[in-house]
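Please fill in the sequence for the structure shown.

STRUCTURE ENCODING:
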């Protein structure tokens, strides 16, 4: 019984990877120009988010210091 479930798990894993491969073939991958553009957008967005969090942290930190004194 244990060998049968082990074999069925192996076949299920094989089917899973075959279906993943088939789905990846359907993906519309970006070309080099689009990839560079998307990368710049992501980096700028991350920098703006980090800047916003840093500013909020500084403001709240100063407010806490003011309230504690």
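FILLED IN BY: designer on duty
SEQUENCE:
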């Amino acid at each position: 019984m244990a060998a049968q479930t082990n074999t069925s798990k192996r076949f299920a894993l094989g089917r899973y990877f075959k279906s993943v491969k088939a789905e990846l073939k359907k993906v519309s991958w970006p070309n080099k120009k689009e990839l560079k553009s998307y990368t710049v957008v992501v980096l700028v967005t991350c920098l703006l988010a980090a800047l916003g969090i840093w500013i909020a942290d500084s403001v709240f930190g100063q407010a806490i210091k003011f309230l504690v004194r």
